[in-house]
Specification:
By secondary structure, the chain is an all-beta fold. It has a single domain, classed as Regulator of chromosome condensation 1/beta-lactamase-inhibitor protein II (Methylamine Dehydrogenase, Chain H, 7 Propeller), CATH 2.130.10.30. The protein is built from one helix and 31 strands. The strands form eight sheets. The protein has a five-stranded antiparallel sheet with strand order 1-8-9-10-13, with no helix packed on it. The protein has a four-stranded antiparallel sheet with strand order 3-2-31-30, with no helix packed on it. The radius of gyration is 19 Å and the shape is globular. One of its GO terms (molecular function) is guanyl-nucleotide exchange factor activity. This is RCC1-like domain-containing protein.
């Protein structure tokens, strides 16, 4: 598969699953987000959008689907992530399943047999996995004992960075030995880990400030003294007199959001050229700052595309922030860029339980199992059956979706994946 396609197909979203670690020590942290309902109800996988490198899991002959299609060989799934050009699933037995592009090791398994990358296959990990995340060219897994493993590669404006000092890692490697992690999040080319004592560790590309610990001056590869400062997970530090503890973390394409434990403040860092962090200065922010745009609400999920952000509060209301082009905000064709969080009128009567962003697309799942999509439609990633842009949330329908109750969604580079259950098991 031509590597050159990668420049046009990029996006990452992280899993929204929280974790409470149980061990012999006194529990230091318990994430505030309620356990998602799909954790207890294994479901099936549906995919749509571009599938030219097998990321749809529908075989070598299916290069695209404009409506949701059932992946026949994958079931008992409890979580999923769409990466740039690959798909990652978590089974109810704690196993990781991957398929799609493996040029830079994002699948974490041997695909030397012709066509094997397009077929769902298991990743060898010693332990039960409880959360997965996917970036443009990397994948990560959090085990029940708090260990984090990752594989693939990070990239920056100069090309491949590798995942470790050895370069691309085609098999899982442990990322933060000696630490217990309770949640992970992936941006396009960075990984964030939340430890049991509420601290953040980051690694990957830092050019847009998404690591929260690398100065603007040293973030460019030409000025680096070595890659270890970027590829080795390191602590995001604060003034000793003000060392916040965090209880949740999320990542956008080129940014990071972290929820402080005591007051619920949202700290942000990364790309803000369209105010997608809720900060006034339209520039990259290289160190964590509180975004007052998020004050006054209890946030249960935040996700980010290339230039926009979606946020879901505890009442099931979705807010949009950032760039308007292609309809990605869902605020109508005549809206302006959103410099502050604006609730989406078309969903005001809906209670939403899950959200996701692609680069220029947005998705929402309601408590009634409905999927809504809006944004750029040119790749079929919205699932509308058309290639037109959608400026307000549109209910997604399809023959193979009719008998299913949607549980969660993940938008990737140019494809989308859904977790759903049969309506016969809705109750």
């Amino acid at each position: 598969m031509p590597v050159k396609k990668r420049a046009l197909k990029r996006r990452a979203t992280g899993s929204s699953t929280g974790l409470t670690i149980k061990n012999n020590k006194k529990q230091k942290l318990s994430l505030s987000r309620p356990e998602p309902p799909y954790i207890k109800t294994p479901g099936v996988l549906l995919t749509f959008g571009q599938g030219d490198v097998g990321q749809l899991g529908l075989g070598t002959n299916i290069l695209e689907r404009s409506r949701p299609a059932l992946v026949p060989s994958v079931d008992n799934v409890i979580d999923l992530c769409a990466g740039g050009m690959h798909t990652v699933c978590l089974s109810d037995s704690g196993e990781v399943i991957t398929f799609g592009c493996n040029d830079e090791g994002a699948l974490g398994r041997d695909t030397s047999k012709e066509g094997s990358e397009t077929e769902p296959g298991k990743v060898a990990l010693e332990g039960r996995v409880v959360q997965i995340t996917a970036g443009d060219s990397h994948t990560a897994a959090l085990l029940s004992d708090g260990k984090v493993y990752a594989w693939g590669s990070f990239r920056d404006s100069s090309g491949t960075m590798g995942l470790s000092s050895k370069g691309i890692e085609k098999k899982p490697i442990e990322m933060l030995p000696g630490n217990v992690v309770v949640k992970i999040a992936s941006g396009a080319h960075h990984l964030v880990m939340l430890s049991e004592n509420g601290q953040l560790y980051t690694c990957g590309c830092g050019e847009q400030g998404q690591l929260g610990r690398v100065t603007e001056r040293s973030a460019n590869r030409d000025r680096r003294h070595g890659m270890a400062n970027f590829l080795s997970p390191m602590l995001v530090t604060f003034n000793p007199r003000h060392r916040p503890e965090f209880e949740d973390v999320w990542a956008g394409t080129y940014c990071t959001f972290a929820k402080e434990k005591s007051k619920g403040d949202i700290y942000v860092f990364g790309l803000n050229n369209y105010n997608q962090l809720g900060l006034e200065e339209q520039k990259s922010h290289f160190y964590p700052v509180i975004s007052r745009a998020f004050s006054g609400k209890k946030w249960v999920q935040i996700c980010g595309g290339l230039h926009h952000t979606l946020a879901l509060d505890s009442d099931g209301v979705i807010y949009a922030l950032g760039r308007k082009e292609y309809g990605r905000l869902g605020l109508g064709e005549d809206c302006d860029d959103a410099k502050e969080l604006i609730s989406i009128p078309a969903l005001k009567d809906k209670k939403c339980v899950d959200i996701s962003c692609g680069d220029s697309v947005s998705f929402a799942v309601t408590d009634r199992g409905e999927l809504y999509a809006w944004g750029m439609g040119s790749t079929g990633q919205l699932g509308t059956g058309e290639e037109e842009d959608v400026h307000t949330p549109q209910l997604i329908k399809g023959k193979q979706l009719e008998s299913h109750f949607v549980l969660c969604v993940s938008g990737g580079g140019q494809h989308t994946v859904l977790l759903a259950k049969s309506v016969d098991h809705e109750n």
